[in-house]
């Protein structure tokens, strides 16, 4: 376990097992639909990679880079598109892949954008869901794990661009980010 991790919340094996199940569900639901699977950079890349390998269907992948944290531990509430899709989603089934749904603000903006672009359908799969933090009304269609309101890192998720490489999901020690709350 990394020295900055307070505890391992979800071990590597549990992540792999749950992703396999999600992949099977998506395979059943999207058979013959050729969806566009959209990863929200950077945190969801590892999840999306493992997820599409667990899906036995034709699909395309694309990426969006959205900023809502700005280096802190809580969402700023401001959502900025840093990189938009390359693909046209008009008439296509879109699966948004998120690492974590927290306030839901980012997801609500992306969901509305795809509907405005005339996607045939827009569904969301997230590895982690923090429903108690929700401030925006969003629908999460496929959930890996519901987690408590703790700052998590690993398996693609970061704090200040660190810890993404950890193979598990851990709770970051508050001492690592305590300086952000002292002026």
Automatic annotation (TrEMBL):
Catalytic activity: IMP + diphosphate = hypoxanthine + 5-phospho-alpha-D-ribose 1-diphosphate; GMP + diphosphate = guanine + 5-phospho-alpha-D-ribose 1-diphosphate
GO biological process: GMP salvage; guanine salvage; hypoxanthine metabolic process; IMP salvage; purine ribonucleoside salvage
Keyword field: Cytoplasm, Glycosyltransferase, Magnesium, Metal-binding, Nucleotide-binding, Purine salvage, Transferase
GO cellular component, one term: cytosol
Cofactors required: Mg(2+)
Record's subcellular location: Cytoplasm
GO molecular function, one term: nucleotide binding
Residue ranges annotated for the Phosphoribosyltransferase domain, each copy included: 14-159
Function: Purine salvage pathway enzyme that catalyzes the transfer of the ribosyl-5-phosphate group from 5-phospho-alpha-D-ribose 1-diphosphate (PRPP) to the N9 position of the 6-oxopurines hypoxanthine and guanine to form the corresponding ribonucleotides IMP (inosine 5'-monophosphate) and GMP (guanosine 5'-monophosphate), with the release of PPi.
Name of the molecule in the record: Hypoxanthine phosphoribosyltransferase
Source organism (scientific name): Aerococcus viridans
Designated gene of the protein: hpt
